[in-house]
Amino acid sequence: MGDLQPAPPNRFWGCLLVQDDHEPPSLKPTFDGQLEKVAYFLNQVWIYLVQHEAAFLDEVAYVNAVTANLEGDATEWMVMLHDEGTLELGNIDTFLEGLWARFWDLTQACWVESNICSIRQGNQSVAEYIKEFHSIAGRLRR
To answer: Could you give the CA distance from residue 117 to residue 39 in angstroms, rounded to a whole number?
Structure first.
């Protein structure tokens, strides 16, 4: 029948192959605490950690790989965690949840507060005014 050769990975699957060399390349994107960057950064972190899973010896190594790409406000937050000796620095899931809560939820809370303070009843009915209030306040998860 001839020699069967595996097909080379296509462009999509080739980028998802895990490298098992115990020295992963550095994570490319950085995060400085800006709301518009947090979702993208966390998505890139997740992809990076999946691709290079075999290269990390423990949870702390995961966290260290991510914290190396923090800047500005995000770095200050990480230093605060370190100074307090919190559990976030010992577990990647807890760390990423904390990062999300700190930079997404806090920004959302500020947005909600600002918008609630700026709404006015004006010509709308009380029911419409209350509906607008609930629509804005509903953005908070807590």
So the answer is: 27
Specify whether the CB–CB gap between 99 and 33 falls below 8 A: no
Residue-by-residue pLDDT tens, the chain, 142 positions: 555 555 444 444 444 444 445 567 788 899 998 887 888 999 999 999 888 888 888 888 889 999 999 999 999 999 998 888 887 888 999 999 989 888 876 656 677 777 777 888 888 888 887 887 777 666 655 4
Q: Are 82 and 40 in contact (CB under 8 A)?
A: no
User: Directed axis angle between helix 59-67 and helix 35-51, to 10°?
Assistant: 140
Picking from 33, 68, 34, 32, the residue whose alpha carbon sits closest to that of residue 48 is 68
124: DSSP letter: S
Q: Which residues contact 114 (CB under 8 A, 6 or more apart)?
A: none
